[in-house]
Amino acid sequence: MERTSVPPIHNVAICGGTHGNELTGVYIVREMQKQKMEKAGSVSVTTVETNPRAVAAGRRYTEMDLNRCFTDVLLSSPITESTLYEVRRAQELNAQLGPKGSAEAVDLLIDLHNTTSNMGLCLILRPNRNAILSVIHKILYFKNNLSSVPVRAIQLDIPSSKAYSLESVGKHGFAIEVGPQPNGVLRADIFNVVKEALDLTLQWLQKFSSGHSFEGGTVEAYTFVKSVDYPRDSAGKATAVIHQNLQDNDFKLLRSGDPIFQTFSGDILKYEGEDLYPFFVNECAYYEKKIAFHLAQRKTYSFPPISVKND
Amino acid sequence: MERTSVPPIHNVAICGGTHGNELTGVYIVREMQKQKMEKAGSVSVTTVETNPRAVAAGRRYTEMDLNRCFTDVLLSSPITESTLYEVRRAQELNAQLGPKGSAEAVDLLIDLHNTTSNMGLCLILRPNRNAILSVIHKILYFKNNLSSVPVRAIQLDIPSSKAYSLESVGKHGFAIEVGPQPNGVLRADIFNVVKEALDLTLQWLQKFSSGHSFEGGTVEAYTFVKSVDYPRDSAGKATAVIHQNLQDNDFKLLRSGDPIFQTFSGDILKYEGEDLYPFFVNECAYYEKKIAFHLAQRKTYSFPPISVKND
After folding, report:
1. Model pLDDT for residues B113-162, shown as the tens digit of each residue
2. By CB distance 3.0 to 4.6 Å, which of A101, A224, B9, B121 could disulfide with B107?
3. Contact B114, B23 (CB under 8 A)
4. Domains by residue range for chain A, with CATH
5. Rounded to a whole number, what is the distance in Å from the CA of A243 to chain B's nearest CA?
6. CA-closest candidate to residue B31, choices B18, B10, B14
7. Rounded to whole angstroms, how far apart are CA atoms B69 and A88?
8. Does the predicted interface ipTM exceed a cut of 0.90?
């Protein structure tokens, strides 16, 4: 593929606490603020604790999931007395780090998340055509896969106006999703992995900004296909738990006939359908969203060699 | 030791949801209620979802930790408009399953809990002299250690009047504490282990009630010595996370010089003191209680052969 020139990354925002009970990002951001970490080479670094009220309450959110508030509709809705806290907060963050879709938006927005699922470190990206994000993925993939946790890319194909998550406010953006870690708990192993991933990303941004060019290549990404709910009784209550063969086996190919649920009375329910890759298996926050797990296809994408386009 | 005759166990209460985000007990109790499980041989079985408001909210408690409300002082405090929900609920439960310390109290109370710590299955007992509980421990120890998770006994030496937990309401009582399981998540492996432990306990109670006698023996128990808090800055904020060598290593002997904390800036803090056994390492609910982990001594106790004393 032909070399692509990409506009420079002058500034990056590192965000934590978008979900108040996902503690890795909260403590990473606080430590960066304590260290007054405001520059990485020539790149400006902004750190934001995005949902302080939810962090203080030790909950995912207080009135509405903040990471579902960054659609064009909600970002432009008038603020009234009855506007939910998180919608208000999303508009503040959009003013600080965006506005989304504008030339003033931060060049790169990284939002730090945790999951109770056994997903290792995932970069969750929207556009698949984004060469910069592909390169960052590749770097983390080679570094981290060798040392501590598997690194994967998940792709959600949602148009920008409907994209509901914080990272959609930046010109480029991705979420770093790491697990398993219980909500409300901070684990050293996961703290260290995320810190390493951020350090590598910032090192790469410095090299890129100073004119270094990077090889092209391919990247494997998991593309969301559908969600699977728990089986339910006539009153809508779940009647089963994730089967122990599926539990902790995110990204292990699920084939027709594999057990996926165990009912509370002991029966086993099996998967029927095309071979797909499960992820977010038994994620705590998805109980209320009626999602037992997601299913994805795995595809390989090519990305071109890149270098910085001079201003 | 001489054979001991023990009063019969006519009835047992199995309780779940004392902490509303510890889901194994909630779902075990609901399934037993759905199956109309009211007898095990000649033994009456009562099942109780003890803190339904906290279960509905998906939180440990709503106004006060219910499992700290069963002291004589709180159980006899007058109910006023400002009485906290959980204190009110404790008095209701004491009326239903107690009164604590009376002849009317349920013969055996089993309360089902989860922890985010890697503790396997623990029986948490108050009195060390209780032959019945020692026998139950022994049975679970031999059955479960062989199959799926380690089984241990933890002993808290608190006089009955000051005992704050639900199981103190029964004539005999223990908590079954199983982990690791994130709050708000239900795992099949842990559901199955607790179900197996309850089935074994009920089988044993049937045998005991029908006149079967049981050999004496010894049981190893961990006795609480002290709690260790996180290191904190001058504003009282934690400055470190449990070190990854200690994380998930509950009940592995901690020796002077072993790392116990990693500060957010990367320093390692070491343990100083006598060799002791850590437990409840990085338990989510203990962050607010300012407990990073507990430390215990391990001791061996003897218990006598027992048989039922006829009424």
Report:
1. 999 999 999 999 876 556 677 778 777 776 666 567 889 989 888 888 88
2. B9
3. yes
4. 4-220+302-308 (3.40.630.10), 228-293 (2.20.25.160)
5. 6
6. B14
7. 39
8. yes
